[in-house]
Design goal:
The protein is 39% helix and 23% strand. It is an alpha/beta fold. Helix 5 packs across helix 6 (103-118) and helix 6 packs parallel to helix 7.
Length: 262
């Protein structure tokens, strides 16, 4: 059975962003599809402003390499699902959990909902979820075991995250037991990063109001920096990932960050 159109678009967008430019022939070779299908897919991605259509192929957008969340869900999916299950296992009845936006935190929200629904120790509204991601709130609000708190702000269409001064006003009044922090990059010597300054500011406010901060990152994000810093490395209590080098693990643990492999 071939991959779905959604998965195919996701893979093409990721290849263009990763390589900077891609020819139709490259897509045909990598995805085993016809040239006509490849051209139609490129036209669709260009209409979504995810790529720039060129003669014979496509190039990455000049302003941003960020792939909207609906097209990023397929990337590193197996690792993200394992990470999400390990994170959800940390949640206890009575907890207030923080989730910022992102594909992995979206999966964590789903896993928390599944765990709470299957385990009788979680009664009605026994876990509070605080999030600035409206897609996560939308999925979780129908779960009777969860109480969902959404921060205010302006929605970013690429990630569905709420940012801006309204969010900064709300968060200081909320105490979070455990924050599951999605990020774009984690540099063991420096800290956690995001591509967008507004999101990084809100994510940093979530960190400030959390008793425990659990960084969530598949191995592709380790050792990487991005445009905007969320927090220093010593603000993190734990990292859940799928793989980590010996050097990275040593640096993290020396900074007081517990490393958990999923």
């Amino acid at each position: 059975m071939g991959i779905s159109r959604h998965e195919r678009l996701s893979q093409i967008a990721a290849l263009v962003i990763e390589r900077g430019a891609l020819r139709v022939e490259d897509i045909v070779e990598n995805l085993d599809i016809s040239a006509a299908t490849a051209r139609r897919d490129l036209d669709e991605l260009a209409a979504q402003q995810l790529i720039v259509r060129t003669r014979g192929g496509a190039s990455a957008p000049p302003v941003s390499g960020e792939i909207p969340i609906r097209y990023r869900t397929i990337l590193h999916n197996d690792a993200k699902e394992r990470i999400a299950k390990a994170a959800a296992a940390l949640v206890l009845p009575g907890d207030t959990i923080g989730l910022n936006g992102g594909t992995t935190t979206t999966l964590i929200g789903r896993e928390i909902a599944l765990r709470c629904g299957a385990d009788k120790q979680f009664g009605p509204a026994s876990v509070t979820v605080v999030t600035n991601a409206i897609n996560i709130a939308n999925e979780l609000v129908v779960r009777p075991q969860l109480r969902v708190v959404v921060t205010g702000g302006v929605v970013r269409p690429n990630t569905f995250e709420l940012t801006g001064p309204l969010t900064a006003l709300v968060l200081p009044a909320i105490a979070i037991d455990t924050l599951f922090l999605g990020l774009v990059g984690l540099e063991p010597r420096r800290g956690a990063y995001n591509d967008d300054a507004g999101e990084a500011m809100v994510n940093g406010a979530l960190v400030e109001n959390a008793s425990r901060v659990v960084a969530i990152a598949d191995s592709s994000k380790l050792g990487r920096r991005a445009f905007a810093k969320i927090c220093d490395i010593d603000a993190l209590d734990m990292l859940i990932t799928d793989a980590v080098s010996v050097e990275q693990r040593e640096l993290l643990e020396n900074s007081g960050v517990e490393v958990v492999l999923a």
